Structure to design on (985 residues):
């Protein structure tokens, strides 16, 4: 297979899979799970081949229909696009996890729809990260957003519909902003290809370029749920079925950040604007996000609500790292995009397993569950240690790099904010660990609960192992992403 | 001479494997004991097997993997690290025996012994850490895995103590992390294999602030006042935990971290140019005296021990802050001297509690007649703390006073004298109560602690005497401390 056909394949395979799911899944979605799993395995193989390719040869492109840019549609695979690996892995594990979970939580008639939407959502994300075309970016963003709204609402409960509606309104506004910005850029440069826009933007009028930048940033930051644009996130992420929460929290919010990286690629290259004031705003909002996310999370009783707020804190880390615009900061932020996906998926899937087995979702009701479900709670604990950034887990390296980036950029104050913000996060995770292991159960029957079934336990354990491995072998992602960041900052002219 | 050798990582790995085995097979009493004792012995053998080489000047290194590009997870057994490792692995074996006896009636023993082994694993990791990042990794892990031990009782009081413990130590950890980041930015490396990596070119101001951050970070676990608040509360933990963790592993990890900062990150020469080091010495002197004053007013045996620990730890810090070879000798030697004497006392307190149920000092009248061997061990430890010659504590005080004179700060000798008096003021009354004040009317029967409690206690007391008598204690030679001092001062 040539790299180009692989690039096309990573979008076409899951898309075709999604379209065929209602057909092959059969009545009441009996085979839907098997089919969706098969599709994701195939997609994961393609993703692995792509990542391998970019590690060996550097970024490469595919031109659809043989039309070179700027005339045709370009699919571009660079180091940032390597997030396809994480998307596929998480998608696969979430689908595997869904077998029992969805069968219990959803009416049978919706099973087929559920897997179709999941695959569509993943297709949207895969397309989003590999496209080199700004309008395609928008289209894929809409695919993943629309399927996301539907997935939040899929249980059909009243609260779920409300949460989905809130998500829809905010999401639609953000899409509108992005679309408007794309229109502006097209008017300015006459192109929709991102690399091409970057070239042509040089020397163009400053005010429209600035307006487009502001709209893009705001739009993507709504998607990323950066404080104060986060209001849609907690309900949506907490109420959705747990595998969906894992995808939404681990991946979907990250598309906003990956989108932001694309924006940086355009604007750093174009040198049309001085981005330092934007970066200052982002660093501050990142710092506030860290603290506010942690602050709200402390008051949550519902385990999934708590995890949802913790996402806001972590988005704060990443945005801060991006805004610092120093080598270490951006490397740390980018790797945290991947690592947080793994960590948060561990936590959400683990929480899902607890809820599935016990029927409780409040921390106080879950007291003592550590004794009856030792493996799940151990995995969640690993995730918790990882997300607060304890060494040697995945979360630590990013914290280390972003704080190092703050010192490197000459703003050690933000390093302090980051490190102490992480302590704040510790407060509520220790509450969770306490209730699992060290507090007497309120409901004695919780001690009789069985460990989660294998299709749930295996994904959770694999993810927990990755949380550890990505910490110990952290140099692999860090050195993988380094050339891309050097290129990005190199265009900055630093 | 540096030699690549697997043993520096094997030592922590053994305890780590032990943790896994205890969690897997620990429901059976036999296997739980078998693995705990087996791993403790195996580790002691591994550490001891490096001792002859270390004494000849060989440094064993092992680089496990690159953690981030440039900074590896590295292990390095130099003289200072070996000293700490020898002390903690010797005491782990002794404490394991004691804990097996002490924990018999307790709940959640699998969890207890599992995390117990994990703590020692991380302590050895701290001792052998090749760079500041590896040190930080184990330092934080130690915090996390002592938490289940501190709250072992799961009572509201224990949970509260646990919260307090985590609050203090995690904030300390955050300071260490910040310090490491700034150090890396300034020096471009984090290695602990040199006598100092920072240089004066970074500026006195930044170096001072960095020093304060690092001292605050490690000082929390080393319980420098006013960062000591967690230590007395954490005494709610079972006695073997208090003994090993709060006399050896946790508090010494803090003190050891400070020694690394002073000797390997800053270096003696650089610190002589920074006035802030004098303030550390004053703070340590203050802690020595204030800790003792508070200890006098404690009636709970373990709380008195806790404040005594606060006071004693600052001997190490004062010795290091003097920046003289004699001071350094005292600081390093006191790691062992304080550990053996303090653990003896904790064993005694635990034995009394288990055998008679008494926890308050005023209840101890006549205890010497009921538990003569236990109280004999106590007497040895108490005399050591007071600084009577022929006991371990005297060696520290001697070298510390010499160090103070060497640096021309004679008033620290007065601090030593005052501290001896204060130690006498709170240790001697217990001796008096125990041996000379039998409560009238009651018949005192001989009722010693069970052998698994008594033997470790006596063994530690013997070490206290040996350390005071000779420089050639088997497995803990004084020349190890001197080798470390020579390296630090480039002699």
């Amino acid at each position: 297979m040539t790299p180009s056909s692989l690039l096309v394949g990573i979008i076409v395979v899951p898309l075709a899979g999604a379209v065929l799911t209602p057909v092959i899944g059969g009545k009441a979605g009996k085979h839907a799970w098997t089919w969706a799993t098969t599709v994701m395995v195939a997609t994961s193989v393609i993703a692995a081949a792509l990542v391998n390719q970019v590690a060996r040869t550097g970024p490469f492109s595919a031109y659809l229909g043989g039309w070179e840019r700027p005339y045709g549609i370009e699919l571009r695979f660079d180091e940032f696009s390597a997030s396809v690996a994480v998307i596929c892995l998480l998608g696969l594990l979430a689908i595997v996890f869904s077998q029992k979970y969805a069968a219990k939580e959803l009416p049978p008639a919706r099973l087929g729809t559920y897997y179709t939407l999941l695959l569509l959502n993943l297709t949207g994300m895969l397309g989003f990260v590999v496209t080199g075309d700004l309008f395609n970016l928008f289209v894929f963003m809409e695919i993943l957003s629309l399927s996301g709204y539907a997935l939040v609402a899929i249980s059909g409960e009243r609260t779920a519909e409300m949460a989905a509606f809130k998500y829809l309104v905010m999401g639609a506004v953000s899409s509108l902003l992005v679309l408007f910005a794309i229109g502006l850029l097209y008017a300015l440069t006459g192109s929709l290809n991102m690399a091409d826009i970057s070239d042509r933007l040089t020397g163009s009028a400053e005010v429209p370029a600035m307006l487009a930048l502001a709209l893009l940033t705001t739009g993507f930051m709504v998607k990323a749920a950066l404080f104060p644009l986060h209001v849609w996130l907690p309900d949506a992420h907490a109420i959705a079925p747990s595998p969906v929460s894992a995808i939404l929290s681990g991946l979907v919010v990250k598309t906003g950040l990956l989108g932001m990286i694309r924006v940086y690629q355009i604007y750093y290259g174009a040198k049309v604007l001085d981005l330092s004031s934007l970066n200052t705003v982002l660093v501050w909002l990142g710092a506030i996000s860290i603290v506010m996310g942690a602050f709200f999370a402390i008051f949550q009783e519902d385990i999934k609500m708590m995890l949802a707020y913790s996402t806001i804190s972590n988005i704060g880390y990443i945005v801060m790292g991006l805004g610092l615009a120093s080598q270490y900061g951006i490397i740390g932020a980018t790797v945290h995009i991947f690592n947080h996906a793994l960590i948060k998926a561990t936590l959400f899937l683990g929480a899902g397993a607890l809820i599935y087995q016990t029927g409780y979702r409040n921390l106080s009701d879950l007291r003592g569950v550590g004794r009856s479900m030792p493996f799940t709670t151990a995995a969640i604990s690993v995730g918790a240690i990882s997300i607060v950034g304890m060494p040697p887990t995945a979360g630590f390296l990013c914290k280390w790099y972003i704080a190092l980036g703050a010192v490197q950029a000459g703003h050690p104050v933000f390093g302090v904010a980051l490190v102490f913000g992480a302590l704040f996060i510790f407060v509520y995770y220790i509450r969770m660990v306490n209730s699992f292991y060290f507090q007497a159960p309120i409901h004695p029957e919780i001690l009789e609960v069985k460990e989660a079934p294998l299709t749930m336990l295996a994904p959770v354990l694999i993810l927990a192992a990755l949380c550890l491995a990505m910490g110990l072998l952290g140099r692999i992602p860090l050195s993988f992403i380094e050339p891309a960041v050097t290129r990005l900052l190199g265009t900055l002219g630093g | 001479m540096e030699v690549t050798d697997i043993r520096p990582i094997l030592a922590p790995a053994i305890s780590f494997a032990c943790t896994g085995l205890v969690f897997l097979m620990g429901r059976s009493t036999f296997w739980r004991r078998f693995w705990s004792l087996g791993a403790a012995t195996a580790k002691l053998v591994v550490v001891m097997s490096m001792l002859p080489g270390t004494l000849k000047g060989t440094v064993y290194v092992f680089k496990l993997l690159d953690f981030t590009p440039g900074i590896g997870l590295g292990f390095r057994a130099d003289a200072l690290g070996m000293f700490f490792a020898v002390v903690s692995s010797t005491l782990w074996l002794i404490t394991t025996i004691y804990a097996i006896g002490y924990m018999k009636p307790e709940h959640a023993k699998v969890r207890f012994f599992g995390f117990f082994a994990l703590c020692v694993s991380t302590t050895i990791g701290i001792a052998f850490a090749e760079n500041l990042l590896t040190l930080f990794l184990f330092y934080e892990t130690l915090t996390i895995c002592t938490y289940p031990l501190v709250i072992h009782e799961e009572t509201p009081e224990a949970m509260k103590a646990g919260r307090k413990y985590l609050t203090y130590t995690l904030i300390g950890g955050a300071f260490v992390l910040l310090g490491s980041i700034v150090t890396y930015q300034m020096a471009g490396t984090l290695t602990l294999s040199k006598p100092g990596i920072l240089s004066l070119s970074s500026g006195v101001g930044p170096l001072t602030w960095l020093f304060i951050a690092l001292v605050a970070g490690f000082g929390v676990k080393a319980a420098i006042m006013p960062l000591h608040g967690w230590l007395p509360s954490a005494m709610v933990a079972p006695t073997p935990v208090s003994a090993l963790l709060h006399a050896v592993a946790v508090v010494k990890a803090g003190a050891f971290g400070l020694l690394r900062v002073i000797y390997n990150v800053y270096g003696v020469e650089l610190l002589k140019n920074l006035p802030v080091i004098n303030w550390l010495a004053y703070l340590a002197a203050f802690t020595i005296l204030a800790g003792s004053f508070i200890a006098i007013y404690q009636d709970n045996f373990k709380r008195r021990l806790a404040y005594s620990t606060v006071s004693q730890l600052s001997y190490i810090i004062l010795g290091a802050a003097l920046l003289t070879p004699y001071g350094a000798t005292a600081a390093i030697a006191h790691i062992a001297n304080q550990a053996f004497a303090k653990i003896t006392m904790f064993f005694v307190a635990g034995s009394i509690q288990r055998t008679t149920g008494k926890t308050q000092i005023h209840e101890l009248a006549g205890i010497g007649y009921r538990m003569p061997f236990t109280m004999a061990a106590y007497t040895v430890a108490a005399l050591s703390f007071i600084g009577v010659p022929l006991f371990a504590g005297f060696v520290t005080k001697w070298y510390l006073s010499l160090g103070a004179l060497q640096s021309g700060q004679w008033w620290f000798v007065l601090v030593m004298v005052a501290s001896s008096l204060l130690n006498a003021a709170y240790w001697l009354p217990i001796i008096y109560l125990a041996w000379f004040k039998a409560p009238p009317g009651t018949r005192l029967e001989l009722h010693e602690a069970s052998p698994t409690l008594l033997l470790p206690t006596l063994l530690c007391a013997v070490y206290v005497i040996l350390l005071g008598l000779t420089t050639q204690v088997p497995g803990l030679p004084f020349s190890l401390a001197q080798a470390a001092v020579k390296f630090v001062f480039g002699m």
